[in-house]
Design a protein that fits this description.
- The complex is a heterodimer of chains A (382) and B (691).
- Chain A is of the alpha/beta class and 382 residues long.
- Chain A is built from 13 helices and 13 strands.
- In chain A, helix 8 links the parallel strand 7 and strand 8.
- In chain A, 43% of the residues are buried.
- Chain B starts with 6 loop residues before the first helix and ends in a 5-residue tail after the last helix.
- The longest helix of chain B is centred in the N-terminal third of the chain and has 40 residues.
- Chain B has 29 helices and no strands.
- Among the domains of chain B are: 56 residues, no CATH class; 201 residues, MetI-like fold (Orthogonal Bundle), CATH 1.10.3720.
- Chain B is mainly alpha-helical.
- Classes of the chains: A alpha/beta (382), B mainly alpha (691).
- Chains A and B meet through helix 4, strand 6, helix 5 and helix 7 of A and helix 9 and helix 10 of B.
C-alpha cells in the first residue's frame, strides 16, 4: 500500500457531528476562539422548550433526539450545531437550501432565538444577554451582509453606510467621515448620492459590505452575500472579499452553497444537512476525506488537479533518488503534469524546511486524479 | 349529441327556473313582490331611541370635543384670512416651487389668482383652513390605527371591516349623527371629513409596514436598532412610499368631504357657495366656484406628491448660509414686499368688487342659447335613452315596450322570438365552453324582460346568493343573503333595487366605454397621453362639481344622475384596462406573435384573457365609484336608497338615514367582494400572482 492511497481512503471512523476531531486545519491551533456555538438547537412549532430541560442542548444522541422532535410535528431547523470560529479565521458554512445554514448564522446573532444551546462571544454567553446588552453588542461587535442586500430603499449610499452609526447617535460629520473611509474600502467613491435602486447588484452588495464594516465589527457574518450576483461579478466580489480580509483580519462566518466559493475563501468549513453539521474541516480535508456521499456530492465537480498539491500525493521512493528533480510540496498537481509526463522516474517533493517528503510520479498523479473523478469508468475490452 | 355543457350552467338553469316560478305565482301571493309592511323590523325607531339616549346623557362629552376642536379651525381661519391675499398667493407659490419646481409654481399662481379674480378668496381660505386642520388629524388617526393593526392581528380583524363600512356608508348618512352629537358649526365638517378620510391612511400604513422586506428589518436589527429606532428609522421610512400614498389619498378624501359637509355645517366656504348657487340655479356661477375646489384639489395633490418624492441629498461641500436657506430667504423677503405693497395699495389685500371678473353671465347665456336652440336634440337624447335603456331595465321590456314608446305592441310572437333567441344564444355560449357568458346572457334576458323592480325579492336573493357561492364559497353566499335580507326586513327593498338599477346601468355603460377607451389607449401612445390628464382631472374633481354641467343641460332627473355617475365612473375602467394590457408578460405576447397571430387575434385571444383579472378590478372600482357618485346624485332627484339617505338627513331622522346608508354600504360591499373574488379566481386560473 502506497502512502498516497492512505491519504485518499476515507477514514474508518464515521465523524458525524464530530466537531472535536479537526484534522489538518490551516489555522494554528493556538489561536484564540472568538465565537463559539455549542449544541445549538432551533425548533419551530408550539412549545419547543418541552424537548429540553433548562435550555441545555447537550443531549446524548442528537440524531435520535431530532427524530423524536420531528415525529411530534415540529420543524428542526438546527440540530445540535457546534463549532468554533477563531480570531481572524474565515469559517464557511455550506449546505443545500433548507439545510439550516441561514438559521445557524441568525442564531449566532440572535436574529433567531435558539431553542437550546450556547453562543459564546469572547467567552460570554450571548443568550444570557438582555435586549439592551444585545443591542450594544450588535452595534459594536457584529456586522452582517445579507443575500438580498437589505439596503434601506429610502437612503442614499452614504446614508445607508452611515446608518448603523446614526443609530448609535454619532454626529453627522463623524459618521460621514467614517462612511467615506469604508466607501473607499469597497471602491464606491462617487456613488455617495445614488439610491440603492440606481445601483447594479454588485454595487448594492458593496454598499451592504461597507455598511456592515462601518462600525468596525470583530465578528462579520455574511449570509450568501454573492449568491444573487452573476458569476463574473461574483468572482470579482470574492477577490474583493479576500483583499478586505487580508487588511482587516475579521473573524468571519460566511454562508454559501457554492463549493468553489468555499474553496477560494475558507480557512475551515462545515457542511450541513437537515439542520445538523455533517463534517467540519479544511476544504481540502473535505475533498480528500468526505465522511459520506452527501459531502462527496458537494466536492464532486471540483477539479482535483487544481486542489491537490504535490505534498498530498507523495509516495515512498522505490529506488535511488540521486539526480532527480526537486519541487516544493506546495506545487499544484496541475503544474506538475508536464514534468512527470516527461520524467518517468518522478520528482522529489520537499517540505518548506527542505526535507524530502517523498516522490511524486506520473502513476501517483493519475491514481490520485482517478480517485477524484466521479465519472463511470469506460468498459475496457481485454 | 355530445354534451359538453358545464355542470355550473345546469345549476343556473335551476336558479332561473325558480325565478320564473316566483314570477308566475307572485300575482297570487303578494308577499313575493312586496315584503309585507307589518313584518318590517322598526330598526329605525330603535336606533332613534338609542341615539336620543346617547345625546341626552353624553352631550357634555361630545360638546366638549366640539369646543376643543373649534379653536384650531378658528385660528387657521384667522391666519389664512388675516393675511393679505397677495402674501398668501406668493407663499403658496414658493411652497409649490420647493415641492416640485417652476411648473407647479406657475400652476399654483394661476389657480390662486383665479380664486382672487372671481371674488371667492375668502370662501376658499375658509375651506382651506378646514382642510389644514382635518388632514393632519385624519393622518394621525389613520397612522395610529394602521400601526395598531400592523402589530396586532386581532386589532386588524376588527379594524378592516370597520373601514369597509366607514368607506361605503354614504357621507350623508353619518353627517346627521355627527350633527346631533357635536352640534352645528364647522366642527361637524371637520369630524365628518376626518371620519371619511382616515381609512385610506390605515390601509396604506398596514400594507406599507407589512411590505418591508425581512432582510431590511434584519439589517436594521444587526445595526443595533432599538425597537423604537427599528420602527421610526427602518420600518416607517422603508414603507414611506406607501404611507405617503395614504397621505395623498387621505388629503383628497378630506377635501371632498369638507365640501360635502358644508351641506350641514356650511358658513361661508366654497362648498356652501357651490351648493347655494346650484340651489339658485345659477349654473355658470356654480361651475366657476366648483372649479375652485377642483383647482385646490389639484394643487394640494401635486404639492403633497412632489414633497413625497423629494429626499435628502448628501452634499459634502459646505454651502454658504445664503444658498442653504435660499428658499426661506426668498419667502420672507417676498412676503414682506407684498405685505408692504398691500399696505400701500389696497388692491393687494382686498380685491375690489369692480375688478371681480366673472364670465358666469356669459356662460349662463351660452347655456340658455344651447338649450333653446337644441331643445329638440337634447330631448331626443333624453327620451330615447329613457325609453330604450333605463325604462326596460327598470320595469322590463314587458312594461316598457308600447306603441307610445317603441312604436309597437309586444305581441305573443315577439315574446316567443325573444325567449327562443335568448335561450338559443345562452345555450350556444354554454356549449362552446363559455359557461359564464351563457349564464350572464340567460340572467340578463330574464331580468331585462321582467325588469329589475318586478323580480320577486326571494328570486333576487337566490340569484345573488348562488353567485356569491360560486365566486367566494359559503362565506360570501351567507354574507350576501344576510345583507340582502337586511334590506328586505328593514323595508328598503324597493328603493334598494332602484339604486341597483341606476348604478348597474351606469357601471355597465361606464365599464364598456372605459374599457374600450382603455384598450385603445394601451395600443396608442397618443390616445394614452390625451386621456391621462382627463382622467386625472375627473378623479380630483369633487363629486359636486361633476354634477353641475349635467344639471345645466339636462335639468333635474334620473337621466342627469345617470350621466353624472358615468362621467365619474368611467375613469377607473380606462385606467385598469390600459394598465392591464400594458403590463402583460412580454414572453406571452412574443409567443403569440411568433405563432403568427393577427393583431385582432392577439388582442382577443391572448391579451384580453390575460388582462381580464386586472380589468375585473377595474370593474370593481367602476362600481365603487358609481356608488359613491350615486349618493351625490340624490341631489338631482333620483329615487333609490340614496334619496332616503338624503331625506333622512334633511328631515333630521337619524334612524331612517343611517339604515338606508347601511343598506348602500351593504350593496357596495357585496359588489366589491363579488368582483374582487371573481378577479382573484380568474387570476388563480391563469396562474398569475396577485398584483
Amino acid at each position: 500500500m502506497t502512502h498516497n492511497s492512505a491519504w485518499l481512503t476515507p477514514p474508518l471512523t464515521h465523524r458525524r457531528n464530530s466537531q472535536e476531531t479537526e484534522i489538518n486545519t490551516n489555522v494554528a491551533e493556538d489561536r484564540t476562539v472568538k465565537l463559539s456555538c455549542r449544541n445549538v438547537w432551533k425548533i419551530y412549532g408550539p412549545g419547543p422548550d418541552q424537548f429540553f430541560d433548562g435550555g441545555n442542548g447537550n443531549v446524548e444522541d442528537a440524531d435520535a433526539h431530532a427524530g423524536t422532535v420531528r415525529s411530534s410535528g415540529h420543524i428542526v431547523a438546527n440540530a445540535n450545531v457546534s463549532f468554533d470560529v477563531h480570531v481572524g479565521e474565515t469559517f464557511i458554512i455550506m449546505g443545500l437550501s433548507g439545510s439550516g445554514k441561514s438559521t445557524t448564522v441568525r442564531c449566532l446573532s440572535r436574529l433567531v432565538e435558539p431553542t437550546a444551546g450556547e453562543i459564546l462571544l469572547d467567552g460570554e454567553d450571548l443568550l444570557k444577554k438582555s435586549d439592551q446588552e444585545l443591542c450594544e453588542i450588535r452595534r459594536h461587535k457584529m456586522g452582517m451582509v445579507f443575500q438580498n442586500f437589505g439596503l434601506m430603499p429610502h437612503l442614499n449610499v452614504i446614508d445607508n453606510i452611515a446608518f448603523p452609526l446614526k443609530l448609535q447617535g454619532i454626529s453627522e460629520s463623524e459618521r460621514y467621515a467614517q462612511a467615506e473611509r469604508v466607501i473607499e474600502l469597497v471602491d464606491l467613491q462617487g456613488r455617495e448620492n445614488n439610491f440603492p435602486n440606481e445601483l447594479s447588484g454588485g454595487q448594492q452588495q458593496r454598499v451592504g459590505i461597507a455598511r456592515s464594516l462601518a462600525v468596525e465589527p470583530d465578528v462579520w457574518f455574511l449570509d450568501e452575500p454573492f449568491s444573487a450576483l452573476d458569476p463574473l461579478i461574483r468572482k470579482q466580489m470574492q477577490d474583493e472579499f479576500l483583499r478586505i480580509q487580508s487588511v482587516l483580519h475579521k473573524s468571519i462566518v460566511f454562508i454559501t452553497h457554492d463549493f468553489q466559493e468555499a474553496l477560494r475563501l475558507a480557512d475551515r468549513m462545515a457542511i450541513m444537512r437537515d439542520g445538523a453539521i455533517v463534517q467540519i474541516g479544511s476544504p481540502v480535508d473535505l475533498i480528500l476525506n468526505p465522511v459520506d456521499d452527501y459531502v462527496r456530492e458537494f466536492t464532486h465537480d471540483v477539479p482535483w488537479e487544481s486542489i491537490l498539491r504535490a505534498a498530498d500525493i507523495v509516495e515512498e521512493p522505490s529506488g535511488p533518488t540521486e539526480g532527480m528533480g526537486r519541487i516544493s510540496g506546495d506545487t499544484l498537481v496541475s503544474q506538475l503534469l508536464r514534468y512527470v509526463s516527461d520524467h518517468e522516474e518522478g520528482v522529489l517533493v520537499e517540505a518548506k524546511d527542505g526535507s524530502v517528503l517523498g516522490i511524486a510520479t506520473a502513476r501517483g498523479v493519475v491514481s490520485a486524479l482517478a480517485s477524484g473523478s466521479g465519472d463511470e469508468p469506460a468498459p475496457v475490452r481485454v | 349529441m355530445r354534451s359538453n355543457i358545464d355542470r355550473k350552467f345546469l345549476h343556473w338553469l335551476g336558479v332561473v327556473a325558480i325565478t320564473l316560478v316566483c314570477i308566475a305565482v307572485q300575482a297570487k301571493s303578494e308577499w313575493l313582490l312586496k315584503y309585507p309592511d307589518t313584518l318590517v323590523v322598526p330598526l329605525a325607531d330603535w336606533l332613534n331611541t338609542i341615539m336620543d339616549w346617547i345625546v341626552r346623557n353624553f352631550n357634555w362629552f361630545f360638546q366638549g370635543i366640539s369646543w376643543v376642536l373649534q379653536w384650531p379651525i378658528w385660528a387657521a381661519q384667522q391666519v389664512l384670512n388675516g393675511v393679505p391675499w397677495s402674501v398668501s398667493v406668493f407663499l403658496f407659490c414658493v411652497v409649490a416651487y420647493a415641492a416640485s419646481g417652476w411648473r407647479l409654481a406657475l400652476f399654483t399662481l394661476a389657480s390662486t389668482l383665479y380664486m382672487v379674480v372671481i371674488g371667492y378668496w375668502e370662501e376658499s381660505m375658509n375651506s382651506l383652513a378646514l382642510v389644514t386642520i382635518s388632514v393632519p388629524l385624519a393622518i394621525l388617526v389613520g397612522f395610529a390605527f394602521g400601526v395598531w393593526g400592523f402589530y396586532s392581528d386581532r386589532a386588524e380583524r376588527a379594524i378592516m371591516p370597520t373601514l369597509d363600512v366607514l368607506q361605503t356608508v354614504p357621507a350623508f348618512a353619518y353627517l346627521l349623527p355627527i350633527l346631533m352629537l357635536f352640534g352645528f358649526g364647522t366642527v361637524v365638517g371637520l369630524i365628518a371629513s376626518v371620519l371619511y378620510a382616515f381609512p385610506p391612511m390605515v390601509r396604506n400604513t398596514i400594507v406599507g409596514l407589512r411590505g418591508v422586506p425581512p432582510s431590511v428589518i434584519e439589517s436594521g436589527l444587526m445595526s443595533g436598532a432599538t425597537p423604537r429606532q427599528l420602527f421610526w428609522q427602518v420600518r416607517v421610512p422603508s414603507s414611506h412610499k406607501q404611507i405617503l400614498l395614504g397621505v395623498n389619498q387621505t388629503t383628497m378624501a378630506s377635501l371632498s368631504m369638507v365640501i360635502i359637509a358644508s351641506i350641514i355645517g356650511g358658513t361661508s366656504d366654497i362648498g356652501w357657495a357651490v351648493l347655494s348657487t346650484i340651489r339658485k340655479a345659477q349654473f355658470g356661477e356654480s361651475l366657476l366656484v366648483g372649479m375652485v375646489i377642483a383647482l385646490m384639489a389639484m394643487v394640494i395633490d401635486r404639492v403633497t406628491a412632489g414633497l413625497a418624492q423629494r429626499s435628502g441629498v448628501y452634499e459634502p461641500d459646505e454651502k454658504s448660509t445664503l444658498e442653504r436657506y435660499r428658499i426661506l430667504i426668498i419667502a420672507v423677503m417676498g412676503a414682506t414686499l407684498f405685505f408692504t405693497l398691500s399696505k400701500v395699495f389696497i388692491l393687494f389685500s382686498d380685491w375690489p368688487r369692480e375688478l371681480v371678473w366673472s364670465p358666469a353671465q356669459t356662460m349662463n347665456d351660452a347655456l340658455t342659447y344651447l338649450i333653446v336652440n337644441f331643445r329638440a336634440q337634447i330631448e331626443t337624447i333624453k327620451t330615447s335613452s329613457f325609453f330604450f335603456v333605463m325604462l326596460p331595465t327598470k320595469i322590463g321590456l314587458q312594461g316598457a315596450v308600447s306603441p307610445f314608446t317603441w312604436g309597437f305592441e309586444l305581441t305573443m310572437a315577439h315574446k316567443v322570438v325573444y325567449a327562443a333567441g335568448m335561450a338559443a344564444l345562452s345555450l350556444w355560449c354554454a356549449m362552446r365552453g363559455r359557461t359564464t357568458a351563457g349564464i350572464v346572457v340567460l340572467l340578463s334576458a330574464v331580468f331585462l324582460y321582467y325588469g329589475l323592480s318586478n323580480i320577486p325579492w326571494p328570486a333576487v336573493i337566490l340569484v345573488f346568493g348562488v353567485a356569491g357561492w360560486k365566486i367566494g364559497g359559503p362565506t360570501l353566499c351567507l354574507g350576501t343573503v344576510l345583507g340582502l335580507g337586511f334590506l328586505v326586513v328593514t323595508g328598503n327593498w324597493a328603493e334598494a333595487m332602484l339604486s341597483v338599477y341606476l348604478c348597474g346601468i351606469a357601471a355597465t355603460l361606464s365599464f364598456l366605454f372605459g374599457t374600450t377607451v382603455g384598450i385603445w389607449a394601451a395600443h396608442n401612445d397618443r390616445v394614452s397621453a390625451f386621456v391621462r390628464p382627463i382622467n386625472d382631472t375627473m378623479q380630483t374633481m369633487p363629486l359636486f362639481v361633476i354634477l353641475i354641467p349635467f344639471v345645466m343641460v339636462f335639468k333635474i332627473g334620473e337621466f342627469t344622475g345617470l350621466l353624472a355617475i358615468m362621467a365619474y365612473a368611467f375613469v377607473p375602467a380606462i385606467r385598469y384596462a390600459e394598465h392591464g394590457l400594458r403590463n402583460l408578460p412580454a414572453n406571452v405576447i412574443e409567443a403569440g406573435n411568433m405563432m403568427g397571430a393577427t393583431k385582432r387575434q392577439l388582442l382577443w385571444q391572448v391579451k384580453i384573457p390575460l388582462a381580464l383579472p386586472v380589468m375585473l378590478l377595474g370593474l370593481n372600482q367602476t362600481i365603487m365609484y358609481a356608488i359613491a357618485m350615486l349618493v351625490i346624485a340624490a341631489l338631482v332627484g333620483t329615487n333609490g336608497l340614496e334619496q332616503i339617505v338624503y331625506i333622512g338627513l334633511s328631515d333630521g331622522d337619524f334612524g331612517v338615514g343611517i339604515i338606508a346608508g347601511l343598506g348602500m354600504a351593504i350593496i357596495a360591499i357585496i359588489a366589491d367582494r363579488m368582483t374582487q373574488g371573481w378577479s382573484k379566481k380568474r387570476q388563480a386560473e391563469l396562474g398569475l400572482g396577485t398584483q
